[in-house]
Amino acid sequence: xxxxxxxxxxxxxxxxxxxxxxxxxxxxxxxxxxxxxxxxxxxxxxxxxxxxxxxxxxxxxxxxxxxxxxxxxxxxxxxxxxxxxxxxxxxxxxxxxxxxxxxxxxxxxxxxxxxxxxxxxxxxxxxxxxxxxxxxxxxxxxxxxxxxxxxxxxxxxxxxxxxxxxxxxxxxxxxxxxxxxxxxxxxxxxxxxxxxxxxxxxxxxxxxxxxxxxxxxxxxxxxxxxxxxxxxxxxxxxxxxxxxxxxxxxxxxxxxxxxxxxxxxxxxx
Amino acid sequence: xxxxxxxxxxxxxxxxxxxxxxxxxxxxxxxxxxxxxxxxxxxxxxxxxxxxxxxxxxxxxxxxxxxxxxxxxxxxxxxxxxxxxxxxxxxxxxxxxxxxxxxxxxxxxxxxxxxxxxxxxxxxxxxxxxxxxxxxxxxxxxxxxxxxxxxxxxxxxxxxxxxxxxxxxxxxxxxxxxxxxxxxxxxxxxxxxxxxxxxxxxxxxxxxxxxxxxxxxxxxxxxxxxxxxxxxxxxxxxxxxxxxxxxxxxxxxxxxxxxxxxxxxxxxxxxxxxxxxxxxxxxxxxxxxxxxxxxxxxxxxxxxxxxxxxxxxxxxxxxxxxxxxxxxxxxxxxxxxxxxxxxxxxxxxxxxxxxxxxxxxxxxxxxxxxxxxxxxxxxxxxxxxx
Lengths: 269, 386
Prior knowledge:
The structure holds two protein chains of two kinds.
Chain A (H helix, E strand, L loop, with lengths): L7 H22 L10 H4 L5 H31 L2 H12 L6 H12 L4 H8 L11 H24 L4 H9 L4 H29 L3 H6 L7 H9 L6 H25 L9
Helix pairs in contact in A: 1-12, 3-7, 3-9, 7-9, 8-9, 9-12, 11-12
Chain B lengths: L3 E12 L2 E12 L3 E5 L6 H9 L6 E6 L2 E2 L10 E4 L11 H6 L14 H14 L15 H13 L5 E5 L7 H18 L2 E6 L2 H7 L2 E6 L2 E6 L1 H6 L4 H6 L4 E9 L2 E4 L2 E4 L9 E7 L4 E4 L6 E10 L4 E7 L2 E7 L8 E6 L4 E5 L13 H9 L7 H6 L3
């Protein structure tokens, strides 16, 4: 028996649950509810432009914050002893074992106008903040949920950098800052790129976070698509068209990131 | 006259309570090719890392040109290193790898202009025979070529001292030999002091001006390759450098030693009367004669063809000797041996007496030392994170 037969279940799975839905989405996007070919679904999307812009903008902000927070964590983590590394990795992964909704509800009770944050602020005598139901709350929720997906790929690249590479750079006259700037950072870029992919793509299509933390005031593409399939504005043809355009933009974005971020390289010679 | 450049004074080092260096005193002269030689875990790499600045000795001083440099970090030392696994920057091409050090301001020096950097890198590429490779990705190079890049990357900075940590360890036999010659020539051409770490005694003998034999964190002997080979100080050095038969003897008088109850003439003097000693007899210094004429007689128990000669193991009353000869003596032959006085070397008894020099388990030992990949640098793993 040839080993490739073992791939059959996977191929069947992919065909049913990945390829077929994409075909459906494409067919829906280009047809009327009666099944006639049309482009009107795309023409009707013009009024959603601001939602498109908001989605990509918030996803971009969340991704950028994830890099700013995640990179130092990943770097510091990789330089610790093996025992502390294991413990810290556990702590980073641990929240992911809890239900996603539960975590987001927890943020609701922190960010609410009478929530933990504001109670703390007024306790220490500072003015309270109105965060809940604003884009800020949505970004906080996204960063919190997606941060591990930024940390882990960066960490896994940095931790593989051979100790001798640091020493070689020092040996050639680089101080710690230069070692980081000229060796660690460039070598870790592929990790940052995978982190960007793993954060940006789900962030663009986020929908539950926006409803819970944005209170319906901060609508994003995920909500829009959901609305057209399950919600009040039932129109799967238009929903498919939106999903298709979003996919198209994401693919172009990823292509550009990869193109200009340098290709993946092996870390050790 | 040679000028002292680096001095280690009473340097000790321990990792997790294991003593890796025990009160080392070592002086390295300017323009010298010095090799730290010893088996895995003997402290040679630790010594090199102390000189490079990657480790601080737990006690003792490191002097460079008479100045104490214990606390000077690696990037401020006029020393460059060729690392064991090359440690090339895979995100940079060959040119940028070599230019790495030049692009940084060196201690006491000013930044070089682009043209200067380019001309020095190109010059160095020629020295290591990699002209035309400057645009190549380092991961596309063969092991030997990567090695050359690593050497060029260090040498281009014109350091006072080049440290080499088993640089040829990953190369095949042929390439090793070529690189040995090239390294030696580079050292002579540049006049840079080379400190070379290896576990390969042939390499050490072939390349060095001075060999430092280490074991258990202690320097066992310092000398020229000839000294180390011909006048080993103890059984460890005798066994580690080349092949040696080491037997117990009793010094009867100046120039006369008793082995296996027979008297042998030798050239060594200055021992106490009847002092027990270790006697080293190199396998190539033993002449095979007919049993009647021999000083000792024994029986051949194993023969191995080595190309240039045969290695035969001969049993003398239970002690197995290695003899190298061009004449075939089949297994089971009884033969006599004769040893000239200059073929005998007498050593005082040491902690290593009785541990080496018997060839009862010869084949296993030979495999071990001839296997290039055998060395797994234990010290390295221990010292790396310090």
